[in-house]
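Example 9 (inverse folding). The structure is encoded as follows.
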């Protein structure tokens, strides 16, 4: 943003012309300030009654300082105060420039195949812990596949920690020097409260559950350095127990959550504190993730606005539909030129910097991976449903039966008070005291529900029964594997289709080079699908999680002032 400034001194009257917005300024320290419109800009007129006054204008990093110096010794202290006042006054009036942005460089850790497999195993292993009808806080991740990190400082003098800047959580936590019995703490930097002059004890206990483990500890308070910002008296968790192998092998010390208060443990989130202390020129932060594998720069997190060098064109903004995660409504999902039919009526999605891959419901991810030729696992239950119940599913859908009732009518699913479960496949374990408690899907029930969704989508495309059932049988061979064998042929990238996500009625295209992750080199090179299945139960799910695979392709703006998310093509 270009800013023009002019200064004029006439008979003790200092006139400053700049592009600041109109604002009435009150009488102060013997000077009178007021603004007059001048050709769509403004004049700041400073009236002073001494002829022995000189003025100096200093412009530095987009801020103005007017120093009014009086030659009289008796007036020196008075005009020193005037100088300080003017500096604060005009600085607050001027628009923020790009130099006022707070920048944090991000480091990128390359993914390897074993890490991806471990992440998927951990993610698949805990579906029963993902929320309930009366608690809408869902552990969506396990961080095994997290790639991007940055450094913050806690305390005075600052103790540095490598953290994930995570839009999918809301707390700040780091290992504590009082963590004695968790192996993970000994592999990472630990916070020492005795070394900080600004530490304040709180002591309230806290714990956070993730997809593959948990951390627990207690709240403390200290100053936190984030880039050039100093967030004073920020509450954070000193972790005294890190209960998972995830944290032992993690490349990060802790997390700085950039989500909303609704999913936080405790009260003060980092974003909330920054806003309350008026540290940012705008209640916005943005992520640019560098996908150039040959670059030493992993990316950049910018607080207070955006860097125009990080994106092309304009951002498309969509409103946050549910505070907690950065959740919004996503439209149709298209493979090549063909709609999947999954999100025609809208799908819930969140954008999450703490997740590397792109996750969605098994039914849709199976279709995606089948379309790109990804290897999966053969599901015997899925094959059974197609061979024994395929004709009946077709007949029921043709006759106008509600898709959600088909598997119940076939006797493959029963309703337990809150959802359908398999009959005779596994024991239903109910949680005491909760009517209609959440239980895991049985294999046949799950397979039937997927087959119904696939058949319904194919019916919309006017497919014949034989073709539809044959297609569903092929999908049964392509179910995403929890062990991570969603491998594609590296030589086939050029023939793979684009995958398009519709956001704000605009298409956001991912090319094969963007959604396929390459690991290893030469003969050891392996290509892995960036789409992974993760079924999140109601009321939070079904839910799409757009992780770094998507954020690498599209510069992302998080506006917590106007509650919206923006996407533009990354530069």
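The amino acid assigned to each position is listed next.
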């Amino acid at each position: 943003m270009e800013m023009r400034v002019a200064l004029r001194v006439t008979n003790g009257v200092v006139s400053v012309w700049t592009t600041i917005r109109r604002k009435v300024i009150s009488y102060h320290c013997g000077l009178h300030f007021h603004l007059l419109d001048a050709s769509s800009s403004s004049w700041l007129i400073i009236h002073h009654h001494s002829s022995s006054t000189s003025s100096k204008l200093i412009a530095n990093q987009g801020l103005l300082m007017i120093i009014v110096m009086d030659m009289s010794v008796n007036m020196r202290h008075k005009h020193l105060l005037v100088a300080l006042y003017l500096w604060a006054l005009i600085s607050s009036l001027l628009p923020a420039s790009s130099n006022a942005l707070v920048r944090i460089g991000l480091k990128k850790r390359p993914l390897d195949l074993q890490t991806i497999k471990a992440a998927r195993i951990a993610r698949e292993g805990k579906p029963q812990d993902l929320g309930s009808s009366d608690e809408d806080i869902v552990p969506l991740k396990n961080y095994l596949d997290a790639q991007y990190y940055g450094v913050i400082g806690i305390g005075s003098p600052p103790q540095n920690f490598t953290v994930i800047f995570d839009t999918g959580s809301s707390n700040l936590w780091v290992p504590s020097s009082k963590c004695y019995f968790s192996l993970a703490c000994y592999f990472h930097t630990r916070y020492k409260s005795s070394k900080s002059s600004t530490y304040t004890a709180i002591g309230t206990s806290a714990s956070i559950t993730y997809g593959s483990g948990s951390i627990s500890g207690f709240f403390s308070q200290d100053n936190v350095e984030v880039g050039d910002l100093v967030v004073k008296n920020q509450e954070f968790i000193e972790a005294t127990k890190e209960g998972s192998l995830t944290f032992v092998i993690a490349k990060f010390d802790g997390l700085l959550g950039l989500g909303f208060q609704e999913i936080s443990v405790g009260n003060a989130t980092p974003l909330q504190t920054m806003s309350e202390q008026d540290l940012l020129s705008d209640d916005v932060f943005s992520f640019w993730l560098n996908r150039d594998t040959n670059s030493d720069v992993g990316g950049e997190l910018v607080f207070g606005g955006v860097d125009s060098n990080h994106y092309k064109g304009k951002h498309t903004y969509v409103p946050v539909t549910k505070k907690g995660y950065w959740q919004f409504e996503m439209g149709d999902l298209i493979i090549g030129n063909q709609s999947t039919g999954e999100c025609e009526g809208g799908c819930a999605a969140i954008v999450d910097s703490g997740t590397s891959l792109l996750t969605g419901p098994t039914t849709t991810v199976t279709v995606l991976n089948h379309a790109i030729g990804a290897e999966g696992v053969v599901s015997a239950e899925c094959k059974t449903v197609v061979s024994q119940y395929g004709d009946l599913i077709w007949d029921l859908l043709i006759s106008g039966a509600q898709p959600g009732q088909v598997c119940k009518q076939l006797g493959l699913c029963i309703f337990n008070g809150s959802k359908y479960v398999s009959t005779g496949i596994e024991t239903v374990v109910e949680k005491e005291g909760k009517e209609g408690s959440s239980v895991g899907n049985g294999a046949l029930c799950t397979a039937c529900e997927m087959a119904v969704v696939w058949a319904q989508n194919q019916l919309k495309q006017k497919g014949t029964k034989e073709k539809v059932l044959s297609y569903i049988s092929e999908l049964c061979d392509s179910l995403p594997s929890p062990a991570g064998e969603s491998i594609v042929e590296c030589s086939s990238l050029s023939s793979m289709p684009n995958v398009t996500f519709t956001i704000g009625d605009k298409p956001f295209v991912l090319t094969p080079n963007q959604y396929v992750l390459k690991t290893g080199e030469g003969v050891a090179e392996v290509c892995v699908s960036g789409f992974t299945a993760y079924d999140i139960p109601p009321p939070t799910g079904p839910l799409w999680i757009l992780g770094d695979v998507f954020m690498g392709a599209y510069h992302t703006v998080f506006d917590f002032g106007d509650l919206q998310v923006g996407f533009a093509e990354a530069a």
